[in-house]
Amino acid sequence: FNPFNSKIHGIHADDVAEAPEFPEVWALLEERMRGRLVLAHNASFDLSVLRHTLADYGMAAPVCSYLCTVILARRAWPEL
Predict the structure, then answer these.
(1) What is the pLDDT of residues 1-32, one digit of tens each?
(2) pTM for this entry
(3) How many CA atoms, within 13 angstroms, populate the side-chain half-sphere of residue 57?
């Protein structure tokens, strides 16, 4: 756990010490994403992290479409 990252998201090693490992969580999420439209704020970052994590575990990435709410917001409110 990098202190810089923990400062951003507030998650520390103790917070997840008893949490399931990624493959167990992914088993629950993968079916919900496969073939569906996924919305995420800064989707390119989130999906990049997901793809790299899946690759680290030797798991295939799901086929899905996505929309980035950052891009949608910037188009809707370009003055902000």
Answers:
(1) 899 999 999 999 999 999 999 999 999 999 89
(2) 0.78
(3) 15
